[in-house]
Amino acid sequence: MRVARPDSNTVSLQIALRRFGPQTGRGPVVWLSGASHVGESNYFAALQRHLDAQGLVLFEGVGAKSKKMRFNPDEEVSIQHTMAASLGLVFQLTAINYDRPTFRNSDLTIPQLQQLLAGGAATGAAAGKEGKAGEEFQELLQIMDGSSVLGALVQAGLKFIGSNPKLQAMTKLVLIEILGQLKGDLSQFKGVPPEVQRMLEVIIQERNKVVFDDLKAELRAVRPPKSIAVFYGAGHMADLEKHLRDELKYQPLDEVWLTAMSVNKRDTGLSDEEVQAMRSLVQWQLDALQP
What we know:
alpha/beta; two-stranded antiparallel sheet
């Protein structure tokens, strides 16, 4: 992820589609296709064209092994869907068509995540850390589906943001700056509480193990696809790239940067002083989280 400034008034979040090939030159190419879960409609249209061109797409979707990866508008709306609507964007599950023969879910289920976070055989201090991580995850689920008091408050706050164009633009700009400046494996950030760090380790690294095992199985197949895309959130990509380079000896060939979302300061009435103050605040907060 990176922040791009194509002109003096525009600030954009861009996310890479990075293509890798085996050092031997023999074997399928692998695309690490990072994604933003909310973005502009033309971003997801470009992402869809990219994914449809691949021989196989291994995609993330917690719990999707037991149900289709299609958003049902009659179901309770998630935080991500509300956020997208409030910021004038669209949500990934409504924008991407997963009903493709080349698309395959490659992820943990929610019960599997909960079991990992519960700690199983952990004892003593480790068990306490795992237990708190499990509690954090359960609270996160309740916030995401809006079933908790905090989740309902977040939903209301997002809807309020969507009612004010300038506040909407500032919130989108904050999102762009935060995501664009996050570097490396988020689970390795040391400035977060231990239980949150453990939760991030499971959410990122343990789920990455699943998709990486599926990827290795495909590469060992008698007739592997000519190209394989790993379609996961961009926060997973640093860890996946490390394993792809170190274990499978794949090397980067090229990359394509897609613009997920943009803000035009002039069109939304944001002053340079407001933008700079917001950017300084974001940088200060991120510096405190770095390893």
